[in-house]
Design a protein that fits this description.
- The protein is globular.
- Helix 4 crosses helix 5 and helix 4 runs parallel beside helix 6.
- The chain has ten helices and twelve strands.
Length: 269
């Protein structure tokens, strides 16, 4: 069976309400307009790969979704709930309700390029920190959940180690587990393999493929075209802050309508 067709046809929508809607996001840094009105919708179980050249706005888009960056304009809905925003002069849109943004961020897992694990905590302590202190889960329950997730990611034997004692691939798998421990509705991945040596990339992508098979909703900024082609339900190509192409991977990779997208893919395929 064609793996691309399989990925496109086996996504189950658990709810009629989209998991995430991003509408008309604009973001500038000084005089440079990085995002020029980007919109996308992710239903439950979707895996959306966001591709494009460096500087096209991919990472900025992800960071705007949970307000790690303040967009200048736009709207964000999570599970049918609109994020309340207000303009802050000189900054952009910020959360209007602290309790709401705290609650909504708990439903959005974020995996960074450079792991961002707390160096002074063991891997297990990294994973249980947010469930205990943010979600108010009991320590025993948080620990049991963490150990099960670490085993699934193949690093249960590293749970008492510190991040510096792990390889880059192991650290990134631990970072994925830390995000999953909060049981988020949506997972955001910002080039999760870009900081890894080539031989470690597949172990991280393997975990991500497993999450896709489980029906996790994922937005993945990536340069791994094989992953985007085989695992995604939708591929979005950004160029100069705009969506130039989007659709199922079979269309985007085999018959893109955007000349710029064709040029970009030619450099990878």
């Amino acid at each position: 069976m064609d793996p691309t067709a399989s990925a496109e046809t086996t996504r189950a929508t658990a709810s009629a309400v989209p998991a995430l809607i991003v509408e008309d996001i604009h973001k500038s840094f000084g005089p440079v307009e990085v995002l020029k009105g980007v919109s996308l919708t992710a239903n439950d179980g979707d895996v959306i790969s966001i591709i494009g050249s460096s500087g096209s706005g991919k990472s900025t888009l992800l960071r705007c979704i949970n307000l790690l960056e303040s967009p200048d304009r736009g709207r964000i809905h999570l599970g049918g709930e609109e994020l309340a925003l207000k303009q802050k002069p000189g900054v952009g849109l910020v959360a209007a309700d602290h309790r709401q943004i705290t609650r909504m961020r708990a439903q959005i897992g974020f995996v960074f390029q450079n792991f961002n694990l707390w160096s002074h905590l063991t891997i297990l302590e990294n994973v249980i920190e947010a469930p205990i202190h943010v979600a108010k889960v009991g320590k025993a329950e948080a620990t049991a959940r963490a150990e099960a997730l670490l085993a699934k990611a193949g690093i249960a034997d590293k749970r008492h180690n510190y991040p510096s004692q792990l390889s880059g691939g192991q650290q990134q798998r631990a970072a994925i587990v830390r995000a999953l421990a909060m049981e988020p509705r949506v997972m955001l991945f910002d080039e999760p393999t870009s900081a890894l040596d080539p031989e470690l990339v597949d172990e991280v992508l393997g975990v991500m493929r497993g999450l896709a098979d489980e029906g996790r909703t994922m937005l993945v900024v990536t340069h791994e075209m094989r992953f985007a082609r085989e695992v995604s339900s939708e591929v979005v190509f950004l160029h100069e802050g705009r969506v130039h192409e989007k659709g199922p991977p079979s269309t985007v990779f085999q018959a893109p309508s955007s000349e710029r997208c064709r040029q970009f893919l030619a450099s990878y395929l």
